[in-house]
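Risk mitigation, structural track. In case the binding assays with zinc ion fail to produce interpretable data, a predicted complex structure has been prepared as a fallback.
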Amino acid sequence: MSVLLIFVIYILIISGFIFIMLFGPNEMFRGTIIEKIHWFITEGALEYILKLYRIIFRKDFSVNDNIIFKILYKFRHRYVQTFYLSISTGGIILFFYTALDRLPNQYLGPIHFLIMPVVIAFIYVSFYVACVSDPGIITKENVDALCEHFKYDHILYSERTCETCKFKKPARSKHCSTCGHCIAKSDHHCVWINNCVGYLNFRYFLLFLISNIVISLYGCYLSIYLMRAKGDSIGLNSGYAFNRYTRRYEKIGFKEYILIMFSEDPILCALVLFLGASILVVLGFIGYQSYLTIISGMTTNELAKWGRLEDRLNKGETFVTKTYVGDQETEENKENEKINKNDTNDNIKQRKEKESKSEMEEFYEGMIKNGYRYSTIRSFDDVTNIYNQGILSNLKEVVFPNEKIFEGKN
Ligand SMILES: [Zn+2]
Ligand SMILES: [Zn+2]
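Fallback model:
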């Protein structure tokens, strides 16, 4: 097998791994092999190992049996985080190992000794910030203000209590079992930073992704110009090379150029291939996340919810929703409300139990009570995403989230 092929396979495996770890939990891969591999890497492998342990030792695994297991178990959520740190640091060390004494050269001036530390610091600082930033943890103190800010749409979100935290769940929030908190406008739990991505830190998450694109582009740029200089020094760029087999000087095509570079500068070639592949995957992920959040006005978590809702409606299911109309009541609405006033909650409950679903929908249709107008949703076209405020407002919410709500004020 040629060296080139081995490199290509190696790059495909690494970028495939990055792709699975980024997109695995995504709705578009629900039920596919991508989701299954992601599950296996993050949870399944450990489960199988524990099962195997039980079969071999005929007892349940206890982390206290062995100090190494204890440490490994304690840090089980940090493996991908460690993987990120090792590939980024490994790549940087590898680059300096092969490039440091070749800089500056005729293409890359001494200015790069100033730029390199800045770019490297950028990834580590943004990684650290993304890891430790508050995603928007909901506490007893701020839950009321958050419920006031994140209004229920009575489609995806209605009044509910978190079983674990024991307080109300504001709309758009989700409990994260890894972090152990309810998170405001929860997007997803990111295994790379081992932190939730939510209302307060979505911007830092994006910054971290961008920092990876910056260092990858810069690394490719440096590597390519280092290789060009090498090509100059071995006379490769003149366009002709001595062919051992034909014993003649022959013109060098693109493929030959690459193959010669692979044998002359294997580390830089591997770096360019790896960085190139990760640029594509991470750019795709940034594009996807930005499209979802800024253009569609939804979180990754909500995308799954909208998908399930559409499925149910397409299967012919219907459900009753309510919209707040209190502020824009018309005379006719008031009249309606007067009629419905006699219905106490208990009354409605009893009727709910007695009547069949379609009768219930008829009963609720157009009804106005306590400032809410009830209506039945029958198709996905009836549904509006009230959280999509338009591109500019969505963007503003990402870049400048209202931190005051988390202090318990509004
Ligand atoms: Zn919770
Ligand atoms: Zn989390």
